[in-house]
Amino acid sequence: MKKTIVGLLIAALLFCAAGCGADPGAQPADGGAETAAQPSADAVVLGSVMQEMLDTVTLPEMMTLTQDDLLDYFGLEPQWCADSAACINANGFEKDEIILVRAADKQSVPQIQSCLETVLENAAAEMQDYLPQQYAMIRGCKVESRDLYVWLFISDSADPLRAVLDKYV
Length: 169
Description:
Elements: H1 2-20, H2 46-56, E1 62-65, H3 69-74, E2 81-89, E3 97-103, H4 109-127, H5 132-139, E4 143-146, E5 149-154, H6 158-166
Antiparallel strand pairs: 1-2, 2-3, 3-5, 4-5
């Protein structure tokens, strides 16, 4: 009896292991159709662009935000964003923010732009009486977009950051 139970358990484990070893690149049974939007072959990976920016441009210590943080920090709904990368100044006193977003579709671009405009307006209002030099820097910043890409650089280093982005977008 014990040998039969052990044999059945081993057979069950083998079937489970065989299922776990499936080829991750294999097409699903429905022919590969997926409900989520797939990035195009020429889509830019914004995390890589952000890393190049951080490696190339001298910035204060930055805190990297996740896609989940976009709603809390910037009001960006997850369904609007196909890809994103964002960093903010880790000290919390001065404004240095880099926000890169690839919209999920053309209808999401104006919504993303509006949220980032609000971020910019709030940053200016926060710094106006607190740090006048930061306020002046923020007033020179703007939300920009090209195709499905929307970005905001709140930084004295906006021009070198834009030069890195221009290589990709």
